[in-house]
Structure formats: structure tokens, C-alpha cells
């Protein structure tokens, strides 16, 4: 089933795998909690003193969740990150909290574009490097420790996904170019992870 009409159905297991791998079910994981600034295309910051972002948010931030007793809990730097679909790591770049891991998913390739997921603010596991193949649900990283960040933002997973033009080499992408015109058609990650 493809509710988006884009040829890709959301994985039914991302949050389930995330909850299991991070033992969040011990607390009775109920749901993700989002500040509006964590959502795709938001123009506001959710960290520090707030304010405006210089450009629309190109992804979704996973940070807090509600447990079975309706308490709010936060992820920490031990959180293990599963990959959404089978693919190949095409790039690892530094970001302001850790690194961002870009994974291409060839089974969804189109004539003019490639489907890519990006996992930001992480520390890739030792075996994860450019060129390595990964399987849906495989743990590829842990969250980066945000305590040393000048921005005051805590550990969280940033997820970006979308179609990237074949005219733009993935190996040359960085955060300044990911949402640039002609580079990509970004998609809202929320239906893919929840």
C-alpha cells in the first residue's frame, strides 16, 4: 500500500524497531511528542531561546515521547538508530551535534532521481562507512551527545528523506545543498516513522 502516491510505502516497523531496540517499551511507549519546530517545513526553532530558522526545517526531529503513565521522556545519546529501508551508505558528513548519515535506497530509484534517507546528529557505528550496504531495521548509529552543543539542543534524531536529482552527485551533498532548488524533492518524514 502506498498512501503517498510516490511509489514508496512507509515501513510499518520503524517506530516498533526503535522502541524495541531502545527498550522504550519498558516505560510503556505511547507516542512521539513534537514541538511545532520539530516538524517538517517549520520556520521556528524548538531549542535554546526559540526564534526563527533561517530556512524551513528539512526534516523531522525525534526527541521526546509519552510513556504509559503520560509522562514525557527524552531520548539520550545511547539511543540506537535503525535504518528505514535496505540501501547503501553514500555519505557521512559532520553536523553541529555529530554526523549525518546518508543512505541511498536503489529499489526505489527513478529515471531522474534517487530516494535517500538522512539520519542527522548521530555517531555511526564502527562498521558503518561510505559504501556499506544496510538492511531495513539494521542499527546504524547512536545519537550524538548534545551536551557540548553551543546551541543548547539535547540529543535528538533528525530524519530527512526525499528524491534527490541524479544530476547532483550524492557524494558532494552537504547541509547547505540538501534543500537547494533543483537538488531534491523532500518529503515529510512523519508518516514514514510513525
The CATH architecture is Distorted Sandwich
The first-to-last residue Cα distance is 16 Å
Structural category: mainly beta
Name of the top-level CATH class = Mainly Beta
Mean pLDDT: 90
Sheet with most strands: 9 strands, antiparallel
Query: Based on DSSP secondary structure assignment, what is the total number of beta strands?
Result: 12
Give, in order, the helices and strands: HEEEEEEEEEEEEH
| Helical stretch tally | 2
Q: What proportion strand?
A: 25-35%
Low-confidence stretches: none
Shape: globular
CATH superfamily membership? Glucose Permease (Domain IIA)
According to CATH, the fold-level topology is Glucose Permease (Domain IIA)
How many domain modules? Answer: 1
| CA gyration radius, whole angstroms | 16 Å
Into which percent range does the helicity of residues fall? under 10%
Please outline the helices and strands:
Blueprint lengths: L13 H8 L9 E3 L26 E3 L1 E3 L5 E3 L5 E3 L4 E8 L4 E6 L8 E12 L8 E2 L4 E5 L13 E9 L18 E4 L2 H4 L1
Antiparallel strand pairs: 1-3, 2-11, 3-4, 5-10, 6-7, 6-9, 7-8, 8-10, 8-11, 11-12
Describe this structure as you would to a colleague.
This protein is mostly beta strands. The chain has one domain (14-193): Glucose Permease (Domain IIA) (Distorted Sandwich). It has helices at 14-21, 190-193, and strands spanning 31-33, 60-62, 64-66, 72-74, 80-82, 87-94, 99-104, 113-124, 133-134, 139-143, 157-165, 184-187. Strands 2, 5, 6, 7, 8, 9, 10, 11 and 12 form a nine-stranded antiparallel β-sheet that branches. A three-stranded antiparallel β-sheet has the order 1-3-4, with no helix packed on it. A hairpin with a 4-residue loop joins strand 6 (87-94) and strand 7 (99-104). The radius of gyration is 16 Å and the shape is globular. The mean pLDDT is 90.
Amino acid at each position: 500500500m502506498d498512501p503517498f502516491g510516490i511509489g514508496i510505502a512507509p515501513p510499518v516497523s520503524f517506530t516498533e524497531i526503535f522502541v524495541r531496540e531502545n527498550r522504550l517499551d519498558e516505560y510503556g511507549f505511547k507516542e512521539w511528542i513534537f514541538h511545532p519546530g520539530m516538524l517538517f517545513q517549520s520556520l521556528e526553532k524548538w531549542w535554546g531561546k526559540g526564534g526563527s530558522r533561517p530556512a524551513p526545517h528539512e526534516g523531522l526531529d525525534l526527541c521526546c515521547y509519552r510513556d504509559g503513565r503520560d509522562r514525557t521522556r527524552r531520548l539520550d545519546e545511547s539511543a540506537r538508530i535503525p535504518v528505514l529501508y535496505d540501501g547503501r551508505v553514500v555519505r557521512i558528513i559532520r553536523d553541529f551535534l555529530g554526523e549525518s548519515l546518508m543512505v541511498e535506497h536503489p529499489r526505489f530509484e527513478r529515471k531522474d532521481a534517487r530516494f535517500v534517507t538522512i539520519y542527522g546528529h548521530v555517531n555511526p557505528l564502527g562498521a558503518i562507512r561510505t559504501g556499506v550496504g544496510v538492511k531495513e531495521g539494521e542499527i546504524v548509529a547512536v545519537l550524538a551527545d548534545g551536551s557540548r552543543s553551543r546551541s543548547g539542543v539535547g540529543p535528538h534524531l533528525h530524519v530527512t528523506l526525499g528524491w534527490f536529482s541524479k544530476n547532483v552527485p550524492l557524494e558532494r551533498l552537504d547541509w547547505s545543498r540538501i534543500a537547494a532548488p533543483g537538488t531534491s524533492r523532500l518529503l515529510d518524514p512523519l508518516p514514514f516513522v510513525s
